[in-house]
């Protein structure tokens, strides 16, 4: 079998309890992700999304203790047996708070931080920093102090800092939650581009389904520590009982066509974005109205 | 209730955050304050809270000049709810947290207990009065923070991105509580990035961009100006975006929400009578 | 972009050497006039380095501190001739010529010694400080990083504190009371949320560092700490001047 078709993330029967907790944060998780996938992960707060992200990048069990069963394999490496530093070159992580995850004064130093930790020689370091800034589209920010940047720019720096380590996977835990609409849109568009143009495997944890649904081919829903859905966003959002139980946001355009199909007026696929919705609405109104 | 007269604010470093705003919010309105980060929303909130004083112009809340009145006096009139409840919660139980504000206003004994009980009931936290706020979820903590403000019975509620960092259900819950309070007579000014929530809950919007008031009016008027909204990084709600070409062509009426658009489409397709029948209860 | 000058070019350790030289000289002189000259020289260096304007707020703070110091000390020294008395007849608040000279001397000494610190901070990127400490002084990287990271968080904490103040004020928490006890009590609703949020932040930062290979073992560094001819010249100059001034002062 072609090795590129081997799963790049493999979570097998994974259960995790935080110390002193009787309730599992993750219970019997099974998840397989292939190289180059763009995966959305959503679910209510407390469902276990962040815990899953920490299990993937090795923070669990190396930094955060607790009881666990099962196995997480990232690009063939068992995360429990591989030190975080080794995993850093394979899986990059971006977190919610743009402020707290950055450690340096300037953009260049921020990108250098991980490379210095992994003892990358100085000349290669410069080249890798340039390449990462270019990929993220923030070459002009290279020498800027971080405190002068907007929240959205800081998140881009965090993404560039992860990319500089040349990981094959990026895991982002609600990177847009503190950004305004423009900043949020820029981040999801950037991720879409990184996935499309560079084949990067991306796992995006996100509450804003209107941003997520039109961009990811596959949406995984966590609820009460378990995976309760794993399918195309259209299929997931079509399950009314599930949507109601999880209290998921349904993009208004999808919601509209759900109402229309329930009324027997519309029979096609549920649109996930406004432009799709406009096409369907055009067809619907031009077809039926006199 | 809130009157801004040509207020300007320039930070000591020379940055002009607000360049002469004029607006008037009447008692009982539900106004959304929208605009991208850095547009001046936070500065305006700080002026409203008396934390900063306008460098020019006047800002009156309930007849009080925010630049002159003591913060404690202002707190009786204006309740502030912030993005992150962790900025204010510090006591070991929800009950103490709710009693903190009214106690500062001098309430004691029976009257204090009543205030606490009422506030807890208003946000649905009565069963949690003896719980440590830190053991609650972020959405619940946000409700504790809201109740701690309500316990002081302010006339005006100023909410700074009250749904940030919460899931959709929690966000809806907090906004529904705010809606209920609005219907009971509170004046509400809510800063938010969520246009769907604006369409669903507010009556009027103030749009800020680069320190200027770009738009001020009923939602339908504001959301019709896609060009101006774009200048401050905003898109109208999806229902408005969808209906726009048909509305401009005179095929559909102006709408704000999915429900309204749905009704309009059914009416266009089948006539008015049928539309009522297929509408969801 | 901050102003560039010869001060910015110097190795951080050279600037620390200059600081130490100023401190040494400040200690050996006992008269107000030479100390005033020394303080003026520090400000002159700041001016030449194009950072005088930038450090003025810090200098103002130090001046206020010096003034308070004089006010507290001046009535304690009762030797010498009376210059003036605050409450004539009562004997209270007598200010003597000896007290005046001693206090001015001590205040100027303190000013000269502390004024180098803002100059140092304004002309040295923290990252350069880490590199200099680690490479030249063999300070363990973790300590140097900790120092600099905590410096970086000060503006963030200030911002956070601003929000907390507003949030508590909105709950009628009296932060402006004239009563000192009430004021002290009002610290709790500010300090506790700040502390809890900082702990949360610190955890996020630790996790973020961990996912970028922190503590993996031997590391490299993008920047390097070098001593140039200018550094050697400045250090030699400082040494020579200090030695000369010490001899003059002790003669």
Report the C-alpha radius of gyration of chain A, rounded. Answer: 20 Å
Enumerate the spans of chain C where pLDDT stays under 50 for 5 or more consecutive residues: none
- The beta-strand count of chain C equals 2
The portion of residues assigned to helices of chain C is: over 70%
H and E order of chain A? EEEHHEEHEHHHEHEHEEHHHH
Helix/strand-derived category of chain A reads: alpha/beta
Number of domains of chain C: 2
Number of domains of chain A: 3
Subcellular location (chain C): Membrane
Transmembrane segments (chain C): 35-52, 59-78, 98-121, 232-250
Protein name (chain C): Energy-coupling factor transporter transmembrane protein EcfT
Keywords (chain C): Cell membrane, Membrane, Transmembrane, Transmembrane helix
Keywords:
heterotrimer, A: 290 residues, alpha/beta, Rossmann fold, 6-stranded mixed β-sheet, 4-stranded antiparallel β-sheet, 40% helix, 20% strand, globular, C: 251 residues, mainly alpha, 2 domains, 2 strands, 71% helix, flat, membrane (chain C), transmembrane (chain C), ABC/ECF_trnsptr_transmembrane (chain C)
Please provide a written account of the structure.
The complex is a heterotrimer of chains A (290), B (281) and C (251). By secondary structure, chain A is of the alpha/beta class. Chain A has three domains: 1-90 and 169-181 and 197-242, Rossmann fold (3-Layer(aba) Sandwich), CATH 3.40.50; 98-166, no CATH class; 251-290, no CATH class. Chain A is built from twelve helices and ten strands. In chain A, the strands form two sheets. A six-stranded mixed beta sheet of chain A has the order 6-7-8-3-9-10, with helices on both faces. Chain A has a four-stranded antiparallel beta sheet with strand order 2-1-4-5, with helices on one face. In chain A, strand 9 (218-223) and strand 10 (226-231) form a beta hairpin. Chain A is globular and about 65 Å long. Chain A starts with 8 loop residues before the first strand and ends with a helix. In chain A, 53% of the residues are buried. Chain B has helices at residues 41-48, 71-77, 94-104, 109-122, 138-150, 168-183, 195-201, 219-224, 226-231, 238-248, 258-270, 272-278, and strands at 2-10, 16-25, 30-34, 56-61, 64-65, 78-81, 156-160, 187-191, 204-209, 212-218. The longest helix of chain B is centred in the middle third of the chain and has 16 residues, at 168-183. With 281 residues, chain B is of the alpha/beta class. With 251 residues, chain C is mainly α. Chain C folds into two domains: 1-124 and 226-251, no CATH class; 137-224, no CATH class. Chain C is built from eleven helices and two strands, in the order H-H-H-H-E-E-H-H-H-H-H-H-H. Chain C has helices at 6-9, 12-28, 32-48, 52-73, 97-114, 116-123, 126-136, 141-169, 180-185, 188-210, 229-250; strands at 82-87, 92-96. In chain C, helix 2 (12-28) runs parallel beside helix 11 and helix 4 (52-73) runs antiparallel to helix 5. Chain C is flat. The mean pLDDT of chain C is 85. Chains B and C meet through helix 2, strand 6 and helix 3 of B and helix 8 and helix 10 of C. Chain A: It is an enzyme of class 3 (hydrolase). Chain A: Belongs to the ABC transporter superfamily. Chain A: It is found in: Cell membrane. Chain A: One of its GO terms (molecular function) is ATP binding. Chain A: Residues 9-249 form the ABC transporter domain.
């Amino acid at each position: 079998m072609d090795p590129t078709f081997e799963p790049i993330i493999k979570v097998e029967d994974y259960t995790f309890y935080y110390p002193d907790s009787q309730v599992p944060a993750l219970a019997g998780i099974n998840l397989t992700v292939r190289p180059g996938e763009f995966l959305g992960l959503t679910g209510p707060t407390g469902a276990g999304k962040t815990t899953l992200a920490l299990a993937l990048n090795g923070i669990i069990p190396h930094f955060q203790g607790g009881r666990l069963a099962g196995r997480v394999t990232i690009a063939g490496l068992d995360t429990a047996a591989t030190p975080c530093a080794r995993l850093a070159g394979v899986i990059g992580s971006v977190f919610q708070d743009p402020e707290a995850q950055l450690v340096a004064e300037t953009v260049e130093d921020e990108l250098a931080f991980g490379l210095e930790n992994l003892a990358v020689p100085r000349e290669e370091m410069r080249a890798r920093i340039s390449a990462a800034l270019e990929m993220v589209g923030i070459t002009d920010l290279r020498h800027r102090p971080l405190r002068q940047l907007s929240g959205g720019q800081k998140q881009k720096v965090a993404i560039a800092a992860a990319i500089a380590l040349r990981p094959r996977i990026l895991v982002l835990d609600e990177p847009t939650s503190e950004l305004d609409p423009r900043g949020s849109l820029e981040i999801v568009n950037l991720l879409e581009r990184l996935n499309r143009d560079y084949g990067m495997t991306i796992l995006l944890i996100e509450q804003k389904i209107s941003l997520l649904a039109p961009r990811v081919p596959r949406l995984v829903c966590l609820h009460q520590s378990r995976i309760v859905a794993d399918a195309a966003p259209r299929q997931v959002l079509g399950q009314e009982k599930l949507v109601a139980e999880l209290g998921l946001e349904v993009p208004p355009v999808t919601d509209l066509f759900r109402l229309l199909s329930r009324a027997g007026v519309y029979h096609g696929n549920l649109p996930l974005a406004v432009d799709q919705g406009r096409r369907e609405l055009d067809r619907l109104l031009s077809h039926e109205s006199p | 209730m809130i009157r801004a007269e040509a207020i300007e604010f320039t930070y000591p470093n020379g940055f002009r955050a607000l360049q002469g705003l004029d607006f008037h919010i009447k008692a009982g309105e539900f106004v959304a304050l929208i605009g991208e980060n850095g547009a001046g929303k936070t500065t305006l909130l700080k002026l409203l809270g008396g934390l900063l004083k306008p460098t020019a112009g006047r800002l009156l809340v309930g007849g009080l000049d925010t630049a002159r009145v003591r913060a404690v006096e202002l707190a009786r009139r204006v309740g502030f709810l912030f993005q992150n409840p962790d900025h204010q919660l510090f006591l070991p139980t929800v009950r103490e947290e709710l009693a903190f504000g009214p106690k500062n206003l001098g309430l004691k004994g029976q009257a204090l207990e009543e205030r606490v009980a009422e506030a807890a009931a208003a946000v649905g936290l009565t069963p949690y009065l003896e719980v440590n706020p830190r053991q609650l979820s972020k959405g619940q903590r946000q409700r504790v923070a809201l109740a701690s403000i309500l316990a002081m019975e302010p006339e005006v509620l100023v909410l700074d991105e009250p749904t940030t960092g919460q899931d959709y259900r929690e966000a809806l819950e907090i906004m529904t509580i705010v809606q209920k309070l609005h219907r009971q007579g509170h004046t509400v000014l809510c800063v938010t990035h969520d246009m769907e929530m604006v369409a669903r809950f507010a009556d009027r919007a103030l749009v800020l961009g680069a320190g200027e008031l770009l738009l001020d009016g009923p939602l339908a008027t504001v959301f019709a100006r896609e060009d101006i909204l774009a200048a401050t990084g905003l898109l109208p709600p999806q229902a408005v975006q969808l209906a726009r070409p048909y509305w401009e062509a005179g095929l559909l009426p102006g709408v704000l929400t999915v429900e309204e658009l749905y009704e309009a489409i059914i009416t266009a397709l089948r006539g008015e009578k049928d539309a009522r029948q297929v509408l969801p209860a | 972009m901050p102003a560039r000058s010869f001060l910015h070019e110097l190795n951080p350790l050279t600037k620390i050497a200059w600081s130490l030289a100023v401190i040494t000289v400040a200690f050996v002189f006992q008269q107000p006039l030479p100390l005033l000259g020394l303080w003026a020289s520090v400000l002159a260096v700041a001016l030449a380095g194009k950072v005088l304007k930038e450090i003025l707020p810090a200098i103002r703070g130090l001046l206020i501190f010096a003034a308070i110091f004089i006010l507290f000390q001046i009535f304690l020294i009762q030797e010498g001739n009376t210059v003036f008395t605050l409450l004539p007849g009562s004997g209270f608040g007598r200010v003597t010529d000896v007290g005046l000279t001693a206090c001015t001397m001590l205040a100027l000494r303190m000013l000269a010694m502390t004024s180098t610190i803002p100059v140092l901070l304004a002309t040295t990127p923290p990252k350069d400080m880490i590199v200099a400490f680690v490479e030249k002084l063999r300070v363990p990287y973790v300590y140097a990083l900790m120092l600099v990271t905590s410096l970086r968080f000060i503006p963030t904490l200030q911002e956070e504190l601003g929000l907390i103040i507003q949030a508590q004020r909105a709950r009628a928490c009296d932060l402006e009371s004239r009563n000192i006890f009430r004021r002290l009590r009002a610290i709790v609703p500010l300090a506790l949320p700040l502390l809890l949020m900082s702990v949360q932040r610190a955890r996020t930062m630790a996790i973020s560092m961990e996912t970028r290979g922190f503590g993996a073992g031997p590391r490299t560094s993008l920047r390097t700490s070098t001593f140039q001819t200018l550094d050697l010249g400045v250090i030699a100059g400082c040494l020579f001047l200090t030695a000369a001034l010490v001899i003059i002062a002790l003669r």
